[in-house]
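wait is this the right file?? whatever heres the structure
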C-alpha cells in the first residue's frame, strides 16, 4: 500500500512549479481530462471505500486512540502529493513518526554516509529513526494508510493506481511523468504487491507506466486480491 514520509521537508515536498509537467493526458489514454478508468473506476472506488471505512471504523478509532495515548502529536498526518493532472492534495495517514521528524532526519543523514546514499537512491530508509515503536507496527501491516480511504472518497486518490509521490520526486520519472499524471494515485498498486520497498526506484516507475498503459477493471480486481496477502506477509514494508 501506498507509503510516504512524515514530519520532513527534506524529501523535497516544496519543489518548483508543476507548470513544467504535462497536464494534458490525451497522449497517454486518449480521454482528455478523464482519469484512467473513467467514471466506472471512480464509482467503484467511491462505493468500496465507503464500505471499507464503515467495516473498519472500530479499527480506525482504536488506532487513532492508541497514537494519541502513545505520545505528543496528532493521530493523523497529511503530506502533500501530486495527483491526477498535476493537482496537489494532502494524502492522509495515521502518524507513525515523531513530531520532530525534520530534525531527526537531518541529523541522521548528516551523521551517516550510508543513510545519505540510501535516501538519495530510494527516498526511503530501511531503519528510519523518525518512526515510533507503534509506528513500526502500523507500517508493517499498512494500517497507517487506512485514512487514505478518505482521499478516495474525496476523489484525490483511487483504491488502485500509481504510488503517490511528492512534486520533486516526480522529476525522477522523466518522460514517464505523463503516465503518472494520467491516473489518480492509488492506496495499492502494482508496486505495492510486487515487493514494495524491496524494489528499486526504476522498477517503481516501470510499474506505474505498466499500470496506466495496460489498465483494465479485471487488473484492478486482481491487484486488490493480491494486496491482502502482501500486507499480511509484510513483504517490503518499512
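ok assuming it is, sequence goes like this
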Amino acid at each position: 500500500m501506498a507509503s510516504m514520509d512524515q514530519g520532513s521537508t527534506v524529501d523535497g515536498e516544496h519543489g518548483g512549479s508543476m507548470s513544467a509537467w504535462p497536464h494534458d493526458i490525451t497522449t497517454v489514454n486518449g480521454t482528455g481530462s478523464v482519469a484512467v478508468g473513467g467514471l466506472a473506476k471512480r464509482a467503484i472506488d467511491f462505493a468500496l471505500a465507503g464500505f471499507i471505512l464503515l467495516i473498519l471504523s472500530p479499527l480506525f478509532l482504536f488506532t487513532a486512540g492508541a497514537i494519541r495515548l502513545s505520545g505528543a502529536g496528532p493521530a493523523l498526518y497529511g503530506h502533500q502529493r501530486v495527483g491526477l493532472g498535476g493537482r496537489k492534495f494532502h494524502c492522509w495517514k495515521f502518524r507513525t513518526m515523531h513530531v520532530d521528524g525534520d530534525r531527526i532526519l537531518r541529523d541522521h543523514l548528516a551523521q551517516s554516509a550510508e543513510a545519505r546514499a540510501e535516501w538519495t537512491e530510494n527516498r526511503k530508509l530501511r531503519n528510519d529513526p523518525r518512526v515510533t515503536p507503534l509506528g513500526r507496527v502500523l507500517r508493517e501491516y499498512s494500517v497507517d494508510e487506512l485514512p487514505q480511504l478518505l482521499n478516495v472518497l474525496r476523489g484525490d486518490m483511487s483504491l488502485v493506481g500509481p504510488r503517490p509521490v511528492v512534486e520533486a520526486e516526480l522529476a525522477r520519472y522523466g518522460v514517464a511523468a505523463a503516465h503518472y499524471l494520467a491516473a489518480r494515485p492509488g492506496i495499492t498498486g502494482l508496486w505495492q504487491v510486487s515487493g514494495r520497498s524491496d524494489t528499486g526506484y526504476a522498477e517503481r516507475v516501470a510499474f506505474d507506466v505498466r499500470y496506466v498503459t495496460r489498465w483494465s477493471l479485471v487488473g484492478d480486481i486482481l491487484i486488490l486480491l493480491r494486496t491482502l496477502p502482501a500486507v499480511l506477509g509484510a513483504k517490503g514494508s518499512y
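Strands lie at 76-82, 88-94, 158-160, 186-188. so i think its the right one actually
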